[in-house]
Amino acid sequence: MQLTDNELSKAYKKDKPEFGHAMLKYYALDPEYINLNNGSYGTTPRPVQHAINELTAKIESNPDVFMRVLLYPAIQKVREQLAEFLGAKANEVVLVSNASMGLATILRNFEWEEGDIIFVFTTTYNSISRTAAYLTDIPPYPTASVITLNFPATHKDVIQTFKQHIQNHPAKPNRKRVAIIDSLVSNPGVLLPWKEMVDICREERIWSVVDAAHSIGQEVGLNLAESNPDFWVSNCHKWLSAKRSCAVLYVPERNQHIIKSSIPTSAFYISPKDRTGPNFVEQYNWNGTIDHGSMLTIPDALEFREWMGGERKINEYCHKLALEGGQLLAKVLGTRVMDPDGELTLNMVNVELPIPPNVPVTLEVHASLETQMMLEQKAYAPQFHHNGRWWTRCSAQVWNELSDFEILGKKWLAVCKDVTEQFGSQEGART
């Protein structure tokens, strides 16, 4: 008999964690569905689900007491834990709803001028590249400069491409340059040499804005004081396993004057001309009525991960599984992994799909792939088109085993065959 979330929340610490399918009892996943897509939305452990259910009941029993008395100390506790986890100061980290909100907050707080440059990559997450595009569409019209990254590639290739591009786009007199850098790209799911890129930004007097949506819980040994980015944002509901959605925004003390206002503007906002001290953390303690429950499950997620053995043990399992699972999936599909040497791979692995170039890259094709895989085949890892080929990105998590990759591969074979037959003869297909 399966334990309820309430029973499991009390009993799980007595168990000895065993990675693989034995971990599935600690998650609410459909037993008929193979989930190799933790990277998109995260997957909440059942003890964390129980924690938010209890918290919600507590909030609703007396919203006044919770919002006016209990909330701020609870947020402070979370911020202190995250700061220790990230190698930062507590007054340098605040909580936001998701990485996109954190990055929008940074980018919209810069005082843009005509002649400023925003560096984005062809692999930048779409909503973030669209934010940069929006900023260039409104006065005073800064310029977006796009850096092309095509994979397969090495870290050396990425660094060389980045250096060459920024040298080809020097700063104009009294103007600034801002680089939006992924720590781990979403699609393809590759690790970039972001710390080296941050160093280059510092040398070139470029502001570094790191989109680390996939980092916390996947990159072991994060130390922001050491890597020293100008700004850094990561989702806590993806790999850290808090309840979605919640994220951490890191702004070192030296740059907090840039972030004048939260989004939306807080009731605790003080005009810079009237400030007698910091006004960064205060704005994020309260900037409108939202459900803070997800943010407050971060301690429960950290506790669950500590029970599993801690960050190094968790990620050693997931990393090894990603490497081996990617090779097995490529063998089943008769294709290849994007990163055969493993330099770009943490817990997400990219494998080419057997879809020929004459299949067009359209919303209709994407919808057919997703619908067949998720609803008919009951398994999924997201598909994407990059550098002229179709790929799938698989996220290896603690509940996965090699057999999941093999089964997924057989299902992808059937769906790719169907899509090729259905769409492969269309005119005007793009490669």
From TrEMBL:
Residues of the Aminotransferase class V domain: 44-343
Keywords: Pyridoxal phosphate
Top-rank taxon: Eukaryota
SUPFAM superfamilies, per the entry: PLP-dependent transferases
The UniProt record lists the keyword Lipid metabolism: no
InterPro entries referenced in this protein's UniProt entry, alphabetically: Aminotrans_V_dom, PyrdxlP-dep_Trfase, PyrdxlP-dep_Trfase_major, PyrdxlP-dep_Trfase_small
Name this polypeptide is given: Aminotransferase class V domain-containing protein
